[in-house]
Amino acid sequence: MRITLTLLALLGLGAHLRADVVPAPLFTDNAVLQREKPVPVWGKAAPGEKVTVTFAGQTVATTADASGRWSVTLAALPARHEGSDLVIRGDNTLTLANVVVGEVWIASGQSNMAWNVKKTYDQALSIPASARLPLIRHIKIRRTVAEAPADTVAIEGAAWQVAGPETTGGFTAVGYYFAKDIHEVTGVPVGIIGSNWSGSLIEGWIDSDSLHPSNGAPFRAVHERWAKALADYPEAKARHAAAVAAWKQERDAAKAAGLPFAKRQPRGPRGPGSSSTPSGLYNAMIHPLVPYALRGAIWYQGESNIGRHSEYRELFPAMIAGWRSKFGQGDFPFYWVQLANHGSPAGIHWALLREAQTQTLALPATGQAVILDIGNSRNIHPGNKQDVGRRLARLALNRTYGVVMPDSGPVFAKVERADAGLRVSFTETAGGLIAPLNELYGFELAGEDKVFKPAEARIEGDTVLVTSADVPAPVTVRYAWRDAPVAGLFNREGLPAVPFQRRL
Predict the structure, then answer these.
(1) Which residue range forms the structural domain that includes residue 455?
(2) pLDDT tens, residue by residue, 131-177
(3) How far is the C-alpha of 429 from the C-alpha of 346, rounded, in Å?
(4) Distance from C-alpha of 282 to C-alpha of 108, rounded to nearest angstrom
(5) 192 pLDDT exceeds 50?
(6) How many domains would you assign to the chain?
(7) Which of 445, 438, 444, 431 is nearest to 491 (CA)?
(8) Which of 235, 257, 277 is the last residue of a domain?
């Protein structure tokens, strides 16, 4: 892209000096356009200015409206590996270089999606090796909050980045490993739009229509909680300032004494302009992406909503449905990561949030990657993001791209009474159930008293017989129903079973 366009992109879509024609910030050098779908291209110009867009043998024209907005749509394109110029002409001419056509995915959520490649355990190998993968591209949306849907979006680095030793370290790790597998199997370019924020709540990512209080009690609870946070903010801000001052004194005293100091600085309260703003992240970081043509979205979030699983059951599907409605591209594929094992072996709050995620599979064109076996109970940010990305890629390859392969671990099918206990049947066994640890951990039984006891479990074909001498008349069985369970049951593809709790 010519220097004039780069400068304009840095200034923002609406800050052009001479009303020159300017594309939306997603359209830069090295961009990836979605194949096999109509491709909208839009931007700003002087009101009434004639604009033409030329790419891959197509030229389409339009006139900027009274507000200066213009939009054209390129007809669906096949995959295009060789970078080409996308030329936009108005009173000025702009050339976007090295534009390819392939698969585009949004990668969103909180810190485990934001976690970049340079922080992963295998970064020393992955980053240099990315030199051979220039058809994997990444664009990072700057962390921003907006009270209302924004017209434009801020881009970190102002442009799409081509994978390589100098750039890949900054890519979302889950998104990169997902893209790598998709690219290596399909052979087409893959673009990842990284729009994520560490520590964010799901309500920040839901559009205001889908989050409206009239949609039900969980939605009203979000707004009531936020109203209280705003009312309490001045006092909370003062308390935080005092806590930070005390923290600095402790830090300085430790430094003066030559002592180590590992205590973290107190976190600020949630308030105006924070990522907790209902719909604030959608408004600033998702809405301005509409109507960019894409294949689908991958999602890794939920840690910040622990303890509010009953809300999440309704908020999560509402968010997915809202995104699909706003983008206007049908029920595009939406695949997510179920929360990893973390925290206490005795707690169940994470298990309940996982259940809410699993229930969202009722929506069409969705899928869930279970990672109980690759998390870290003591680290909320496990370093193995490669396998996380690969499991998401399995879902996409099997369900979106038609590459037949197992993409899920064993899934609960039914429970029946057996002479000695309960028999659980599974689907998605991929040739059979296995217990890599030899002993089959993680099963519990309860009777009518609802008191769960650890149970013995034995694989019999595509079923598991679950018994416990402490529960002679079981009516409920559950598996991996803890914050940090041991994943004991897998299929022969090496994929872990989906946690569940079921009553006869």
Answers:
(1) 411-503
(2) 999 999 999 999 999 999 999 999 999 899 999 999 999 999 999 99
(3) 28
(4) 11
(5) yes
(6) 2
(7) 431
(8) 277
